[in-house]
Amino acid sequence: MSPFVPLHFQPNLVIWAPGRINLIGEHTDYNLGYALPMAIDKGIRFGFSKNGSQSVCRIYSRDQENVLEVDLEHLEPSPIQWENYILGVLKGIRDKGGTCSGFDCVFESNLPMGAGMSSSAALECGMAYGVNELFDIGLDNSQLMKIAQKAEHHFVGTQCGIMDQFASIMGKKDHAMLLDCQNLAYNYVPLDQTNHSFLLLNTHVSHNLAESAYNERRAQCESVVAYFAQKDTHIASLRDISMEQLEAAREEISELAFTRASYVLRENQRVHAMVNCLSQGAIQKAGDLLFQAHWDLSKAYEVSCPESDFLVEFAQNDPVVLGARQMGGGFGGCVLHLLPNAEIAAYIARVTKAYKAAFQIELSAYTTKAEQGVHCLTTDHL
Fold this sequence. Notes:
The chain is an alpha+beta fold.
């Protein structure tokens, strides 16, 4: 291990990068559809300081209790997964012509790993934003989020969409964001959490998107787009295809590809329906949409798991829960619940007992609020 293990690190710059939850619109981002994410009040805190070297960077993770020491002139993927999120960002900044020299960084997180709150995007976006600020490089938010996304593509191996990075950078307090993943157009959607909140229950079933069926799902959807693009060159994504067109082509594409694509089209419709519900205060209908989205994810897109299905079924049978669904890439992580604030504590007790009886696993519960995206904090000891 490098001797750089700071106990009293005094940074010149402190950055906060939030995680995100996605209210609805799962697996739509890489299909250039719509999503409704929000930045949350959990994230990663970074401290940065120039170290006077030409190209040596020392980046210490308090959570991993380990240090990444890297030369900016030789940036290659690492066999250690968490390092690749950082290495990919640094390479992306250099490829954009960003001029930076050696620096030290210390970071720590209160985001649970693998829970679907996008700790990876927070790590990427905080690093990109911090280096950009520290060296006054001048990249804009759109460039930073795309650098973070490409880091995940080329260094981590996950062919993710842009939603996670967008939410971490562009989040706004007390708002979700209706995001058009095709052109990054967005509208802020006010959230009134006075009487109801979003509760996250962590299944503690671990998943790794780079090793999961995530890339497989993307390829299945792209195969449908490729079929239609042969007939119409204006078709570039599933959002350019109607349900009627998809139904008409059912015999020409595989049944599995049809099932995956039809889920995406329905999910895009649910995103817009959710925005209408939130705007009109139709909280019960909003909850119904969450239940619908979950079972579509589970049955059509097949990215749920027995533990998540158990939690959603339990929620549907409990009178206080308005809606629930698997959140994030899938295969575990967190299940998102919508319920009255006054009922949260009692519900956590009920569901925790039932979940442990079924799986011998302790649930972790988190309530979240919509908060600002990546930003600078007052300089302080990290």
